[in-house]
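Sample pair:
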Amino acid sequence: MVEWQSRPLGPVYPVVFIDAIHVKIRDGAVANRPIYVALAVTTEGRREILGLWAGDGGEGAKHWLHILTEIKNRGVSDVLMLVCDGLKSLPEAVETVWPRTIVQTCVVHLLRSSFRYATRQDWDKIARLLRPVYTAPTAEAALERFTEFVDAWGRKYPASVKLWENAWEEFTPFLRFDTEIRRIVCTTNAIESVNARISGQGRPPTPQTRLALR
């Protein structure tokens, strides 16, 4: 495992996904621990796990900066796009390691966070109104649809609106691409398959998330 974790990596990856999954680890006692995962798409189109790092749950953007620096030191000179959750200061950490990398916020994380600020009875309505935002043909069209979302829900759920406004710069990059590429780079869900292999179960998508992603 030590040899695998420190192996040399390729010089360039078109897409790298990073996220944390939670698994049960026995260290004296059994407890849920976060495992930080970096999963890449190679230039040949294959998936490759770059590394797995165990944490204690208190890590943030500085911890990811350490991980990304380790990946760079193992030979990765450039990443075209890095897909991640909306962790504050993470784009700055990515820029420190790879200044030209495009940071893409995971749409599913944005949706899940939006639901947290709303009552359950409104989740379906919110999902239906947000879907035209991230399926818009252009960033300009997405902004128009988002304005409609703000008009409908901004007064009731201002925190959801603020969430999307704060993430907008990192939300829109994938809208530059065709539908086939968008489906690959819009979410870190590929890491859920790693979770399933490690723990035997992944996080099942909520009905609202399934609706939004269709």
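The first strand starts at residue 12 and ends at 27.
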